[in-house]
């Protein structure tokens, strides 16, 4: 890797070498340089863009595969991860939210280096709502969201004022721009269900070419997503994700003729796809029961052929022009790496290597809404019952998988068992499971967590007197809610960037999350006050008996600081045991030292109060 002036950082200084011998394994997992799956320019495939934490902060890097040169593109105190490489490989676009609050503007920098420039003159700061770049190097389709305007989508042509081609109060976003730039696919939620989008295809002048809406006819729990136009000149096929059979699957939609081609893939879990560069086939990503695999689907023969990958999780994959596939892989036991079906090492950052961890064990528990899948890690060679951390994932539309995670591994290193629950609301187990949490938000997830908790205690895994509930974002919300709703179940709670006061959070959060909350709860706090009250941790704060640790970013637009302060004041008013750590960032930190500090503070808090 090289820094912004082209030199190669020395990753093996005496200080680094000394630190390697004294740094504990849990900290090395955070410090070890890691990289994302490189994106490549469609018309200049030797040029790539990736994210790395090589400097201690996650930033964007340019990589010229022809010369091997790697150059740091961005350098900001709070880090940068949102970047797009132009199709000709000449420009790197990146989103500049100065305070980490996700509110900012697009800037761009030449691939070979140089000064940043404002990429979209005439467009003020906003939350991003998608970006698609044209093949001509002059055209961009820019999605913006603000609390005042809702969503607007603009056609921005270099040297001309940007033009609004779409506007709506509800959430929407740019999906893709066709190969020849004549068609623009957008996702929208004009029907009011923020969790299930419909699709519209526009001309550059904003006129509608085609519509695809699976929410019509009362089917409010079906959604669609744009997966991309065929990468072929004049091709009007759009790859679309749908939920018509109760799980995510791809279909091919010709937006001009209206013809839909159902692939009919006989795979049990959620399926996504992207085009092979020549448009003749699809790279299929199949996720099922917390693991994933890849296939190639030939559109002519309709043959499905497995792409060999090790057992574990593929968190990203792309088909290269030579037919090979590059993918980012990890397992709970092995750190992530960028691999290729050619057998070559795609991108191996120098410096400290991350230690491995113990593999997960799969557990299935009968719950009130069906079988619940949980992933369990415990100290190797030790006997239970263990002090046990229930590490609850965010989202809620997300899931824990058999992939490498430094946070859970840190707890295992310190003698704790870790249980991660894919509660109702999680993805990867069918649409019915994902959509089950509506209206009784939070309470349904806690029922599933309680069922797995009962299994953990009765099986001898967990010590019932040393159970810790923790999570970030939605997991932090469920932590605070669980401490109040299930006060006898938990010895401690650790909540990172949580929803704590649901009504205040709704009024202060970014507009896209307001729309999601209206969908989940069936209205605004004024329309359904009883649902917001039943689902808010603040309602139950006086029942909390366990010591509580809360960490929060002061610039967070998703779980804003004021609603957390309201919750903390209630704890203070009754002298409840708690600690609060506020840091200068948004919804989490991209700075490695900051992340390590937060984990260390959590470990120390538990040690003080639990003595585990």
From TrEMBL:
Residues 408-611 form the Peptidase S9 prolyl oligopeptidase catalytic domain. One of its GO terms (biological process) is proteolysis. One of its GO terms (molecular function) is serine-type endopeptidase activity. The keyword Hydrolase applies. Residues 1-21 have a biased composition (Polar residues). Keywords: Hydrolase. Gene3D superfamilies: alpha/beta hydrolase (3.40.50.1820), TolB, C-terminal domain (2.120.10.30). This is Prolyl oligopeptidase family serine peptidase. It comes from Streptomyces sp. SID12501.
